[in-house]
Design goal:
This protein is α/β, with parallel strands linked by helices. Helix content is about 30%, strand content about 20%. It contains 10 helices and 15 strands. Strand 11 (about 230-235) and strand 12 (about 240-245) form a beta hairpin. About 50% of the residues are buried. GO terms for molecular function: ATP binding; phosphofructokinase activity.
Length: about 350
């Protein structure tokens, strides 16, 4: 089986709204208004950029996580205990706690606190820390919601500021920050955007079902992103895997193997980490997609917001084909990872 090259290059992640992720296992379906005796529970450092950084670090790659937090915050102590390099901006408010309720069939309910408000000085300090770290980076990943106090177009401003660093820029966000990013013009477009079907529908101004059930509508929405300057779109499709579209006309779909889903929290973040790791290893687009789906699948099979080690990632079980589900391209299917030819 082909072994991927060692990831080379630094990754910097920004988590402007980090969290402690508290996962609570339910014994059965959530029964509103009833008393429930919980099963296993866990608390892990979280926030989308933190999850990406944890998965990248687990693969042995060079990564640093930029975030706002008090120096003695439990989140900071937890990340230091994991050995994750940090560039923190001290603030006076504790990091929020997010709660995840997980049912035995994998159904996940999230309860997210709003986060610590950031004033102009804290936002400026975060941007300065990000730019300092990005000067030596191959990838900068901007992930998650924005905290209270941040302007909704802050990601667009950060992308513009990062252009001079030479790093490739990935963004994974939703709702108002996502809409503002794509409305800001081509100079604010990231190199990689990672929407799911709900977020793609938000950008297209359509109901999610219209995008999820109609490949032509999905392709039209993705084409609009390329027209706005996004070079690569990694569209996560839940149980259907993910698709990758490139501005030069490339389009692939990666189908995951069946696994027992334990928690979907952080699966999309691990997909993004897998994609970046494969790019650092010099993989071609279809293989970057294969690795992304393999990482997301491995994450979904783990409890809480745990991230997979490379030994838990089965790229050979992911099938990559040109086109989208229900909208195949005429080319032949790509071989599974490890076949003769992530």
């Amino acid at each position: 089986m082909k072994t991927p090259a060692t990831p080379a290059g630094r990754v910097v992640t920004l988590t402007a709204n980090p969290s402690l992720d508290r996962t609570l296992d339910l014994p059965g379906p959530l029964d509103r208004g009833a008393v429930t005796r919980l099963g296993r529970s866990s608390t892990e450092p979280g926030g989308k950029g933190v999850n990406v950084a944890r998965a990248v670090a687990a693969a042995g790659a060079d990564v640093v996580s930029v975030l706002p937090a008090p120096d003695d915050d439990p989140l900071v102590r937890a990340l230091q205990a994991l050995g994750l390099p940090l560039a923190t901006v001290p603030i006076g408010t504790p990091v929020r706690t997010n709660y995840t309720l997980t049912e035995p069939d994998g159904t996940t309910t999230k309860l997210n606190e709003p986060g610590a408000p950031l004033d102009d000085a804290a936002l400026a300090a975060l941007q300065a820390a990000l730019l300092e770290q990005a000067r030596s980076a191959r990838w900068v990943v901007l992930s998650g919601s924005l905290p209270p106090g941040a302007p909704r177009d802050w990601y667009a401003a950060l992308v513009r500021a990062l252009r001079g660093t030479g790093a490739r820029i990935a963004v994974d966000t939703s709702e108002a920050p996502l809409l503002a990013l794509l409305a800001a013009g081509p100079d604010a477009a990231p190199d990689l955007l990672k929407p799911n079907t709900e977020e793609l529908a938000q950008l297209a101004g359509l109901p999610e079902a219209a995008v999820a059930d109609d490949p032509d509508a999905a392709l039209a929405a993705v084409a609009t992103l390329h027209e706005r300057g996004v070079a690569e779109v990694l569209l996560t499709l839940g149980a259907d895997g993910a698709a990758l579209s490139t501005a030069d006309g490339g389009l692939w779909w990666a189908r995951p193997p069946r696994v027992a889903v334990r928690s979907t929290v952080g699966a999309g973040d691990c997909s993004l980490a897998g994609y970046v790791l494969a790019d650092l290893a010099g993989e071609e687009p279809a293989e970057r997609l294969r690795t992304a789906v393999a990482y997301g699948t491995a994450s979904a099979a783990l409890p809480g917001s745990a991230v997979p080690a490379p030994s838990q990632v089965d790229r050979a079980a992911v099938t990559v084909t040109p086109g989208l589900p229900g909208h195949p391209a005429p080319a032949a299917a790509a071989p599974a990872a490890g076949a003769d030819t992530h």
